[in-house]
Amino acid sequence: MRERNFGGSRNEFERPRGSVTFLRYHVVFTTKYRRKAITARVLTTTLTSFEETCATKGWTLEETNSEADHVHILLGFPPRDTL
């Protein structure tokens, strides 16, 4: 799990032309009927896929957390991109 301080220091703000942003998206994936189906292998594969996607798109994978029936992901990306 990645830990981060979200105090929002001046260096963390994104400054596209004409605006200032600090957007973070909390995404939760759950299994159908909340079945306990997320094993260590499934989690590793899922997080690797997210890390590759983030690297390709220039996003940041801020933090992850999971249990056997759901995964929390905190993403940071500019407002010009869509999820």
List keywords for this structure.
83 residues, alpha+beta, Alpha-Beta Plaits, disordered N terminus
Structure description:
By secondary structure, the chain is of the alpha+beta class. The protein has a domain at about 25-75: Transposase IS200-like (Alpha-Beta Plaits). Helix content is about 20%, strand content about 25%. The protein contains one helix and three strands. It has a three-stranded antiparallel β-sheet, with helices on one face. A hairpin with a 2-residue loop joins strand 2 (about 60-65) and strand 3 (about 70-75). The protein starts with about 25 loop residues before the first strand and ends in a 7-residue tail after the last strand. Residues about 1-5 have low confidence and may be disordered.
Task: Give me a quick take on this structure.
The protein has 83 residues and is α+β, with helices and mostly antiparallel strands.
CATH-scheme architecture of one domain: 2-Layer Sandwich
Shape: elongated
Tell me the helix content: 10-25%
Order of helices and strands: EHEE
The end-to-end distance, rounded to whole angstroms, is 22 Å
Number of β-strand runs? 3
Beta-strand percentage range: 25-35%
Mean pLDDT score: 85
Helix/sheet category: alpha+beta
Largest sheet: 3 strands, antiparallel
Which fold name fills CATH's third level, the topology of one domain?
Alpha-Beta Plaits
CA radius of gyration is: 15 Å
